[in-house]
Amino acid sequence: MPSRISPGFQADGSPASDREQGYVSGNPSQSSTPEIHFTIPHLTFLNRQLQNLEPQEILQWSITTLPSLFQITSFGLTGLVIIDMLSKMKIPPVVDLIFFDTLHHFPETLTLVDRVRSRYSHVNIHVYKPEGLETAEEFARKHGEKLWETNDELYDWVAKVEPAQRAYRELQVDAVLTGRRRSQGGKRGDLRVLDVDEAGLIKINPLANWTFQEVRDYIKENDVPYNELLDRNYKSVGDWHSTKPISDGEDERAGRWQGKQKTECGIHNPRSKFARFLMEQEQKQQDEALHLALQSSLEVLS
User: Least buried of 19, 26, 65, 199, by fewest C-beta within 10 Å?
Assistant: First the structure.
């Protein structure tokens, strides 16, 4: 992982003490890439300043300040706005996209990816899929049918979190632009423009202050390609099995994971959560293997 947290933080990303600590991003083995340090007061100060800027100004600040900057996107409306804004800068910057293909996206989403490639031909898109898999059929053969129902956390890990960690490592990502906004609700309600996760990855949310209507107006006014599902009352689009259209007046992300106490797909959840989950999975497998071994031994003795 090319980003790391400074020694003053615990594994969950919280300060080890009340004294001033610094965030750090960057791989010390990469002599060509400078490390970026943020003390907590500095991060607070930057957010106060960035909070008052327009998205284009936040993007300009990000490009000129942060090394190894990428954009992670599932080609939702906000991500598309960011792509378009970057393309219209006086000198369009080189900010590659990272798309996590879970193998369970709507056909309309995959068609949109091709339309974006055509419209913004200068943009390089890195596609990351579940490791070693290319199709939904392969996914089901390896992990079983409807893994998102039988083991939702394992699904998030296999389809989203592991590919994300692999992408950040292989592409040497230090900072990412995201399409998260406060108006999306849930855990995003208190979203800051600039954040650093527990592993030291810098996340910039250029449109944190915008509403859904502002995003949609920009899309229309600038003729930005968008997902056809939007015209069928899908305001937030993820995997086909966990996304539904919403009714007028419902929260923007109400169609995601209906019936579950869940508001994030895993990519923006603390990594320590998945580290604990993987340890629990490994322990469960060991317990099951031990149980089978004991049963076999008892059968032999009988």
Answer: 19
